[in-house]
Structure formats: structure tokens, C-alpha cells
Amino acid sequence: xxxxxxxxxxxxxxxxxxxxxxxxxxxxxxxxxxxxxxxxxxxxxxxxxxxxxxxxxxxxxxxxxxxxxxxxxxxxxxxxxxxxxxxxxxxxxxxxxxxxxxxxxxxxxxxxxxxxxxxxxxxxxxxxxxxxxxxxxxxxxxxxxxxxxxxxxxxxxxxxxxxxxxxxxxxxxxxxxxxxxxxxxxxxxxxxxxxxxxxxxxxxxxxxxxxxxxxxxxxxxxxxxxxxxxxxxxxxxxxxxxx
Amino acid sequence: xxxxxxxxxxxxxxxxxxxxxxxxxxxxxxxxxxxxxxxxxxxxxxxxxxxxxxxxxxxxxxxxxxxxxxxxxxxxxxxxxxxxxxxxxxxxxxxxxxxxxxxxxxxxxxxxxxxxxxxxxxxxxxxxxxxxxxxxxxxxxxxxxxxxxxxxxxxxxxxxxxxxxxxxxxxxxxxxxxxxxxxxxxxxxxxxxxxxxxxxxxxxxxxxxxxxxxxxxxxxxxxxxxxxxxxxxxxxxxxxxxx
Lengths: 243, 243
Hints:
Two copies of one chain form a homodimer.
Chain A: E1 3-8, H1 19-27, E2 30-34, H2 35-40, H3 42-45, E3 50-53, H4 58-70, E4 74-79, H5 89-94, E5 102-105, H6 110-118, E6 119-120, E7 126-130, H7 138-151, E8 154-158, H8 168-180, E9 184-189, E10 197-202, E11 215-219, E12 225-227, E13 230-232, H9 237-241
Helix pairs in contact in A: 7-8
């Protein structure tokens, strides 16, 4: 058996990949990944062979990577953001029996790269929620939205909208508004990639048209505020210890 | 004005720092941070001057870093894990008015580095929760625990125990057990540092004694399972598309 690295490459720019992730990619005989992520690291891959496919090709992709590793190759299976969160590490473990030569290398997930672009909205207890109903029924997503309101969590929303599914985000923000008022929302499209857009708004002024699958929305909790164009959730140091 | 980088250094090992974070540290005139984090990157700092202090010294630390940056220095304020989540980015924005020369550099947060050591427990919708009541009253924490049960979220628990506060974790796990059954728990102490301990157990067998402030606990959702010693939350690809 060779080796399979499952590598989180972060949001896109190469300087947000960890050294461990970069070393894995550089030491691999073969790079597997979703088309878009392979494109993002094209210049790192050089002439190495790649295997890439599209959405809904995840099982085929993971099986291909596992088979190549079994045959003795060193393989990197690359994932956008982290390697596990809404990514492929768990499918790798589900599809194989011998874990000895599998290494999971974490990456910067979008919630954190997006938060850094907006200011500091993610500062304390947090929910990360995907609105994709491909793998999670919307009934469960709705229950989680109710839970978020109860806990007054800051929320990072992944996959807020796709072509087939354009109304869920509105339903979610409407629920937040009804239960917690006109919260501050940060929208980052193409974070740390070409054509990045950063926008901060309130729920009632939310611009649904700029949101797509390459957008992450962070909705603050009831303490989040806007200062000089940055979105800030106070951690509570000043309330506790004074300034 | 000089420049202030707020840098997330990840869990501890230097190869889990991003290149952007490393470059910031190497280009700085001065490094500020909590004692323990300064120690972790000691060999990267070399002979640069440092300012470090302990817990509850956060306001003093941030003010010192901001003042040095104002006076023209390039300063890195380093944080364990990410630079914003349970960290100092938001306090920086709270304590200054001119944001032009402040740059937030995200880092690998403990939930994700710990998840990678356990297998792939973090795979879909997630709550990150701190049990420290220094800045968040336990009443709010309890409400959030109720919300987690309603949403059946995978939960990463930071700061699970301190010397003064050793019963909250038991209260939380008891609530999870009552509402959702005997969930699988992953315990990682000193993740990616010397003396790392990785342990997977069920709530009823939970070993409270090994938990301390350098431990993160990940509690699965009702779908999380154990396979060959790894903790896995299925993403749902196999249920949806078959194997």
C-alpha cells in the first residue's frame, strides 16, 4: 500500500495552505479532486497526473484515489477549505478498511477565511450550517435554524444558494429576523480568489442576487455590530475587565 | 502607522501554520502573544523581541501590540488555532479606530485539527462551543446545549474544564445523553503538541480525569459511528448515491 493524503487546501490562495498540506501535494505521484479545486492549485501540481471530476462524482473520485494508493502510489485527494468539513475525509474512511496509510491534513475552512475578510464576526460560539439539501433534507436544516435562534449563535452559512435551490436562504434569514431581529450579515463571494466581493448589510437590506454557491454568508448574533466598515462580535473582554 | 498582523498559528506544530501566517511572523519587528503560544513558536521567533503575558492579560496585550504598530513597528499578535475564534481579532477592532493597517490571518482551529486526529467526526453541520464561563455566563451555555440537542449537531467543545470549573462538562454530556443517547466522544489532549493523547469513547465511559484546558472534546451526532478505531460522521454520499 502507498499513501493517501486527504488535504484541505483552504479558500484558494496558495499562501493559506499549510506547509503540511503543501508538502503532501508536492510529494504525491497523483492528485485527485473536484475540478474547481484542481484548477486552484494548478501551478503547484506541475506535470503530475491528476484525476478530477464534478459534483456527484465524489464516490468515484474517492474510490479512484484509494485504488491508486492501494497499488502503491502516493496520492493527494484535495478538498477546498478543510479536508473533512463538507469534504471527503469521512467518505474515505467509509469506503476502505485499512486506515494505516491514510492521513487527514486539516485546512482553513471558509467560515474562518471569510470571517477574516469581514472583520471579526466569528469570535465565540458558532454554528456552521450548509443549506445544500443534496445530502441533508430541508426538514432537518429547518430544525437546525430553530436551534440556532434558541442558542443565539453566530452562523456561517455554506452553500447558501444554487440554481435549483434559491429560496432556502430567504427562509432562513426570515426566521432569524423574526426570532432575533435585524442581524448583521457578512457576504463574501469568491473569498481569497479572483473577483472577490465583500459586503456587509442587515437582513432587511440583504442582496440575494449576488449570492451563489461560491459565497459564504456569516450572520452575526444579537451582539454583533458594525464599526468603520468591519463586522465585529465582541468576545466580552471589555464588558468583563473594562477598557 | 506600522502594521499589525493578527495571526492564527494553528494547534502547535509549525507545519500547520499557513505560509501567510509564517511570513507575517518572519517579517515582524515584534511578536506579542499569550505565554504558551509564544513558547510554541519560539524557534520561529529567533532573536526578535516579544511581549507575552497570561490569561486575563488580553486587553493589556492587545493595547501594547496596537501602540507598537501605531509607533511604526510591524507587529504580529499570535493566537493559538484561529486568530478570531475565541481569540483576539475582535478585541483588536474594539480597541482601535483606524483599521487600515490591520490584517487578520486565519489559522487552523482546534475543532479541525482535533477532528483530523480522531478520523472524520466533523463532516457536516457543526457547533463549536466553549465551556469557559469567564466571558459567557453558564446560563447562556446551557441554553446553547439545549439548542445543540434540538439540531442534533456534532459539537466541538473547547475549554472543557479548568481547575475552578470541573462540573460543566459532566452537565453537558449528561444532557446530550438524556436527549440523544450514548453518543460517541473523541478526546484529544495536547493536539499536535508533545504528549498528545487521543481517545474515543462513549458518553457513559467518558474519562473526565484526562480532560483539562488543553483538551478538546468532539461529541458526534446520532449518526456518528466507530470503525477500526476511527470516529466517523457519514456525510451521506453512500445513502444518497449507493456504493
